[in-house]
Amino acid sequence: MGKAYYLVKWKGWPESSNTWEPRKHLNCPLLIENFLKDKNEYLSRVREGKAMKVRSHVKTLKPAIADYIVKKAKQRIALQRWKEELNRKKNHKAMILVENTVDLEGPPLDFYYINEYKPAPGINVLNGITTGCECADCPAEKCCPKEAGFILAYNKHKKLKIQPGLPIYECNSYCRCGPDCLNRIVQKGTPYSLCIFRTNNGRGWGVKTLQKIKTNSFVMEYVGEVITSEEAERRGQLYDNQGNTYLFDLDYDSDEFTVDAARYGNVSHFVNHSCDPNLQVFNVFIDNLDLRLPRIALFSTRTIKAGEELTFDYQMKGSIDLTSDSAEGLSPSKKRIRTVCKCGAVCCRGYLN
Questions:
Q1: pLDDT tens-digit readout, 221-231
Q2: Which is a Gene Ontology cellular component entry for this protein (predicted)?
Q3: With pLDDT > 70 as the criterion, what percentage of the chain qualifies?
Q4: Residue positions forming the annotated binding site
Q5: Annotated binding-site ranges for S-adenosyl-L-methionine
Q6: 3-class DSSP assignment, residue 195
């Protein structure tokens, strides 16, 4: 039986310097493992999942197989670099992983990771708050939520205790309390390691948790560009034509502003819609008390198992785009193209908007 040779692309060298090497010259067991895995994966897909016997020793690989293996290797490198970039830019301790076992799609080409709102020119998301609570141990009689006329949003276990629709007022940078205050949750960022993964049912990228998440826990914040509602209407027409939905209306008090996470955002950019979601939207005020510009936080509605996909309802109050009922009253110029929902929930409404 002949000796097996591998075509090697040397790191830091152009492809013109590729060489054929025997197995004994290669000190890269993981790369060999990925090579064989990718080859078998391609062959199984060619046969549409039908059982087949894969020969371990062949004289040469067919061009289509070799092309797939090369593309898969390049994708793996690109996703690894993207993962490293995301983890350099995030400002929270938990890790972000990236996974694609479905197709050859690589990192998005026009997406930039940010940790907080990116306001458009002329929009101020920090309104110059200059006072905070004097509590030594929150909550006290004049803690931030009570000063705003609301109750503390969290219990002693730092879990949410208020109903959807009520605002969250956290202690701010001028408050006397320290970083361990139980009223500082959203501002610390997501405490859970998450994975951006490629879905296998045509929904593009999604996000799953790598850790168990208990009910009423803060999971992540929704961030992006803050734009006017007029600009959001213009962009919305373009996004509808592309079948994308990233516009999140800040309508807690009015509808002057919208968050657009299409190009600038965090992990929440990749969270998919579900008509039966496990995340709920809440409006949060910390260093900005302007009711037109709340921060948007996503909390778990139930216990979420490790490995489970995270979703929220794009039609939640204060949420993305328009409900089908409200769309009926719009003029023809403002009516949106309806996007088919692929969430698969038993209670699926059929459309995202």
A1: 999 999 999 99
A2: nucleus
A3: 88
A4: 133, 135, 138, 143-144, 171, 175, 177, 181, 203-205, 272-273, 275, 314, 341-343, 348
A5: 203-205, 272-273, 314, 342
A6: strand
